[in-house]
């Protein structure tokens, strides 16, 4: 682990039936397990949409896993922690409710408390407010590659010295407005019922120097990233930078991308449904959980989709271990 490396120091998940990151590689029957958002209790939840609540649950677990969150709060300066969120559907339910209220009652029917929740960056904003994270704050809504793009932007923020660490959360809700959007208005009665991911995954990216200063060790190291026109080109760009053998590949399909023969392949959409903007973060959390239990190895995460305008790929390698 070099001084200029960016590492992963904590992970968290909020997915029904999933007890922790290690369980992400286990195929989950639809509807299994309780609602993870119920783990979030206390005041201040009334005007928070489902995606925000799920993100808060996963984010809390990742910060705690990294040793950054204890009672009564952060263990580091709040200015050193940023937030990057990936979500393509996010608060679409709030927006639909707001539009419906305006159509039925005009603007006078809106609650002044609910209106700020229609902003596209509401999830990242609430994460920052809830945990007092005062560093850079970004939201990615970038199609299938959004999750891996978010991890890379967090990496760039750390490398640029904007912050020492970043909480990255990928989250998507499954609710009627999202289903209406995904299916183009088709109903369950029409026989159209796709399985959608309903949950959140989170990880903490941190500079290797900051990890050493805190006297903790890394779970994984963030390697090269590429965003190209298609998956094969993105993978080739990474292989040109780091040609080491790949032990685990996250993507779609059974054989792995052209140019590599991974020991294990996983399509998390087959396990947990259409993950959309949460996919890349979910892959990185699952890959980190695997790497943290091994002395060596590399995980390749990749994301594209039908009709997507680009593909992204990211390599994770073993970090310094957990003391």
TrEMBL record:
This is 3-oxoacyl-[acyl-carrier-protein] synthase II. Transmembrane segments: none annotated. Residues 47-178 form the Beta-ketoacyl synthase-like N-terminal domain. It is an enzyme of class 2 (transferase). One of its GO terms (molecular function) is 3-oxoacyl-[acyl-carrier-protein] synthase activity. PANTHER family: 3-OXOACYL-[ACYL-CARRIER-PROTEIN] SYNTHASE, MITOCHONDRIAL, POLYKETIDE SYNTHASE-RELATED. The keyword Chaperone does not apply. It comes from the Bacteria. It comes from Plantactinospora soyae. Keywords: Acyltransferase, Transferase. GO terms for biological process: fatty acid biosynthetic process. Gene3D superfamilies: 3.40.47.10.
């Amino acid at each position: 682990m070099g001084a200029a490396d960016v590492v992963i120091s904590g992970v968290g998940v909020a997915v029904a039936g999933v007890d922790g990151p290690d369980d992400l590689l286990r195929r989950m029957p639809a509807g299994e397990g309780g609602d993870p958002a119920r783990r979030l209790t206390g005041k201040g939840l009334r005007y928070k949409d489902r995606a925000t609540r799920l993100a808060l649950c996963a984010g809390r677990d990742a910060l705690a896993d990294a040793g950054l969150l204890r009672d009564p709060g952060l263990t580091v300066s709040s200015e050193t922690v940023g937030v990057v969120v990936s979500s393509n559907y996010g608060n679409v339910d709030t927006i639909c409710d707001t539009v419906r209220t305006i159509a039925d009652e005009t603007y006078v029917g809106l609650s002044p408390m609910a209106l700020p929740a229609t902003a596209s960056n509401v999830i990242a904003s609430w994460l920052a407010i809830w945990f007092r994270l005062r560093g850079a704050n970004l939201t990615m809504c970038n199609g299938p590659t959004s999750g891996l793009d978010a991890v890379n932007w967090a990496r760039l923020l750390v490398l640029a010295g904007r912050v020492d660490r970043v909480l990255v959360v990928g989250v998507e809700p499954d609710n009627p407005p999202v289903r209406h959007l995904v299916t183009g208005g088709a109903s369950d009665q029409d026989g159209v019922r796709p399985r959608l991911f309903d949950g959140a995954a989170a990880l903490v990216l941190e500079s290797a120097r900051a990890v050493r200063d805190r006297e903790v060790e890394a779970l994984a190291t963030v390697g090269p990233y590429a965003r190209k026109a298609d998956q094969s080109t993105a993978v080739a760009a990474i292989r040109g930078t780091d040609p080491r053998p790949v032990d685990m590949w996250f993507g779609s399909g059974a054989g792995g991308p052209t140019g590599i023969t991974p020991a294990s392949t996983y399509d998390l959409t087959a396990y947990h449904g259409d993950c959309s903007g949460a996919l890349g973060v979910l892959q990185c959390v699952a890959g980190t959980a695997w790497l943290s239990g091994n002395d060596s190895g590399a995980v390749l995460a990749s994301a594209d989709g039908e009709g997507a305008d680009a593909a992204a790929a990211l390599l994770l390698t073993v970090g310094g271990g957990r003391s």
